[in-house]
Amino acid sequence: MMTKTFFAVAMISLCAVTAPSLALAEPTEGWKLRFQRTYNGKPVEGEDAVLLFAAKSEALISSEAVHGGKAAFPFEQTLIKPGISELLQVARLNGEETIAALDRESLAKQLFELSEGETKTILGYRCKKAKTMVNSNTIELWYTNELPAAGAPTVLGHQLGLVLELVRNGNFVIRATQIEPFKGLDLQALAQGGGKLAEAQEAAAVQLLDGLSYKDRLWKSRFITIPVFQDQIVNFSAQDSEPREGVTRYANGTVALKTVQLPEVQSGSQVFVDLLARSNGDAYDRTGSVFVIPLGSKSDKKRSFLDGLQQGVSALPAYQNGNGKTYRGVVASEDYAPLIELMRFFTPFGVKHYNHLQLKGKTWHEAVPYRMDITDLAVRLSGQKVAVGVFIGNYDQGGHKLDMNITVHPNDSAAAMFSKPQENAKERSGSRQLLMPLFNTTNVMEMANQDYATMFDVAKGLEVKFSLDRPLKNARLRYITTGHGGWANGDEFLPKKNTIVLDGKPVFSFVPWRQDCGAFRLFNPASGNFNDGLSSSDLSRSNWCPGTATNPIYIDLGDLKAGRHRIAVRIAQGAKEGESFSAWNVSGLLQGD
Asked: Record keywords: Signal included (predicted)?
C-alpha cells in the first residue's frame, strides 16, 4: 500500500534541511485544475489525468491516481515556486525508497516568444499564447492572467501565469478540462492525499540527489532489470571451468552460462537484451550468440543443448544429409530442442584493447553496445527459469569482456501512442501462443569440437521434421542467417540466396547482405588496411558487419494443419578451396497462434 504521508514528510525534511526557501506557506486560496491528454484529437487511452493545484506563489503538479492514493510505483510529484525559480521533484520508487532533487536553475532559463495578439478562451478565461522550442519540439502554451495564480501541467511556463493548454508539435495536447476554486489551499495536506490524512505510518527515507542522478534512478525504476553478466570474460581457457559468481563456462571458456529466473511478462510489455562488449586481447571479428535453454518442467523436450555443454558434443543428436558429415545438436527432434537464439552479434576488430593503434582523424569507441528487442519470445520466457548463455568463438587467451542485462518494460499507454498500430499489439506483447525452436546451426561448441555448418554444400541442405498437435494459425518463422568463409571466394563476401521450403514448396527466398559495414569503422581499431584505402571492417558481408548484431527476419508460413510437417533451408554454399571452406549459421523458431 502507498504511504500517503510520504510526500509531506519528504518536503518537510528537504525544505528544513536543504531548501529553506521552499518551506510551505500557510493555507491560502487557490485553484484545482484537471488536465486531459489527447493525441491527434483522440484521448490517450489509460491516462492518469494531471492534477494541478495552483496558488499565487506556488503550485503542485500531481495526478488523479497519486492524489487518490491509487498510483502504481514509481510516481512523482513536483512542487514549484515560480517567483524564486525553485523546483522540487519528489519520486516514490517503491514502498521503501523516495528520492528528491532540488532545481534552482532550469526555470530561470526558460525563454518564450510571446504573441500578445493571439488569444482564445479556455474554460471561460481569456488566454494568451507563448511559444518555445524544447529538443526540436515546438511547444505552444496558452495561459491566462485573469486569476491570481501561477502554474502549469508540466514544468514549462509557470512564470507566465496559469497555463490552461500545452500543445506539442500541433498534435499532442494537454488541456484543462476542469477548474474550480480550492479554499484553504494547503499543498502539504494535498500531497498527503486530498487532505484526508492516512493512519500514521513511517514514511520512506528520502534521498536528496543531484538532478542527473535523480532522473537516472527514476528512469531505471520504471522497468525491471535482470542482470546476467558483469565483466564476464569469454576466452579460450581450458583451465577455467569452475562455476564463479553463478556463471559456469563451457567449451574451453568460450561459452558462459547462468541460470536466471525471469518474471512474468504482462501483455503489452516489451523485453530487450542488452550486451556491452570490448576486447580483452582478441584482435579479430568473431561470431557471437546470446541464447536461452528453458529448464524445469516447461522445457518440453527430454534433451537440450545443455546436455552437450555438460557431457560433450557427442551427447547431442546427430544430423546427416548425405554429404558424408555428421552435425551435432543443430535440428529439433522428438526428444531434443536446439538453442533458442535471442541475438546474433559480431565482435569488431579489437575495440578498446587495441585503441592505442592510432590513425589521424579516428577516435575509437571504448566498447560496442548491442540491444535487441526480444518481445516476440516473451511468451516462451515469461515466468520461467532459464539458462542464459553467451558464446564468442575465439582461440585467444585474453578473449573478450562483456556485460549483459535483460530488461522488461511494462505496458505504457503513452509509449504506445508512438509505437505500432493497435492491430500489431500482439506482435509487441509476444502473445503468440507457440514458440518452437526448429534449428540452430551456429556451432556454439566450436572450441569443443562441434563442426561448422557446411551442410548446405548439397541440394538437401538443412531439413527438419516437426509435428503440430493442433492447427497453427498465422504461422511464421523467426529466421537469422549469416554467411562465413573469409577469403575472396568465401560466402562471407559473396551474396548467396537463402530459400525456405515448407512441405516441399518454396515459400520465401532472399539474399542476406550488409552494405553498411563502413559505418562502424570506429569500433574496429585493429582492422586490416588495404592498398585501395579500404579497411577489412568496411567490406560488405553476408548479413553481418564487425561490431553489429544481425536482425531476425520473419517469414509468413500461413495457417498450418495439425500433424507432420517438414521445413528446409537451402543455400548455394560455395565450394571448398584447399583448406578454406564456407559455412552458414542459421537459426529458426516457429511461432503462431
From this structure: yes
Q: How many domains, in total, are found in the chain?
A: 2
Name which of 59, 101, 73, 83 is nearest 191 in CA terms. 59
CA atoms within 13 A on the CB side of 16: 7
Let me know: does 91 contact 23? Beta carbons within 8 Å: no
pLDDT score of 188 more than 60: no
Which residues form the domain of 117? 6-220
111 in the same domain as 258 = no
The CATH number that applies at residue 33 is 2.50.20
Q: Rounded distance, CA 456 to CA 572, Å?
A: 7
Question: Checking phi first, is residue 579 left (phi over 0); if not, alpha (psi -120 to 50) or beta?
Answer: alpha
d(CA 92, CA 529): 54
CATH number at residue 354: 2.60.120.230
Whether 374 and 506 share a structural domain:
yes
User: pLDDT by residue (tens digit) across 354-390?
Assistant: 999 999 999 999 999 999 999 999 877 899 999 999 9
Residue with cell 517567483: 83
- What per-residue confidence (pLDDT) applies to 304? 95
* Residue 27 pLDDT: 54
Separation between Cα atoms, residue 593 and residue 468, nearest integer Å: 12
Residues 138, 109 share a domain: yes
- The last residue of one of the domains, among 168, 195, 220, is 220
Residue of 39, 293, 281, 59 whose CA lies nearest to 166? 39
